[in-house]
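hey
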């Protein structure tokens, strides 16, 4: 292990590029296209996008919801998208009354409709409350998409489309998640223009 900061920086950037480069594989691209099709169909049909996750994934959920409500690259009308972790009063009330494992499922029950799409984000794919949210979405007749790490965890079986970042490092997976989110924004904007 080197102590040269420049070498560490180069190695970290190289690892990020290599992980993202692996996303060019046909399987990853096909999953992105399928997820974008579900999201586009929902928005065309009057549905909305419900994003959720914990920690850094909560921040990604809020970031991506904002890209759809505001705009990504194109001037267009706002698309209905909600970040479930962004309302701390709701999250803490549900956690207090029902337990933290229900913070997303309860919101899906209240806000989700069959024409909507739930987008669950978890680097491990094993976060109990994220899996519960995706399960609640499917039970409500909604489509569900997940952004996970390489093996998909429990989340892979709880969704219609699992976007698996091709890596095991949490940092590299998170970097792929924001790239995936931006690709989804681009595909949906193009489809709806």
């Amino acid at each position: 292990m080197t102590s040269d900061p420049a070498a560490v920086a180069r190695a970290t950037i190289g690892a990020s590029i290599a992980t993202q480069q692996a996303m060019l594989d046909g399987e990853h691209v096909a999953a992105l296209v399928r997820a974008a099709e579900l999201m586009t169909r929902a928005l065309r049909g009057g549905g909305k996008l419900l994003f959720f996750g914990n920690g850094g994934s909560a921040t990604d959920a809020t970031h991506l919801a904002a890209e759809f409500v505001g705009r990504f690259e194109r001037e267009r009308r706002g698309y209905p998208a909600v970040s479930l972790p962004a309302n701390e009063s709701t999250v803490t009330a549900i956690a207090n009354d029902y337990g933290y494992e229900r913070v997303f499922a309860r919101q899906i029950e209240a806000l989700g409709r069959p024409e909507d799409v739930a987008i669950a984000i978890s680097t491990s794919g094993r976060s109990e409350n994220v899996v519960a949210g995706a399960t609640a979405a499917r039970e409500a007749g909604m489509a569900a998409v997940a952004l996970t790490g390489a093996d998909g965890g429990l989340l892979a079986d709880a969704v219609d489309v699992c976007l698996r970042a091709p890596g095991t490092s949490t940092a590299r997976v998170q970097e792929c998640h924001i790239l995936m989110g931006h690709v989804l924004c681009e595909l949906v904007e193009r489809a709806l223009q």
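The mean pLDDT is 96. Residues 170-192 form the longest helix (23 residues).
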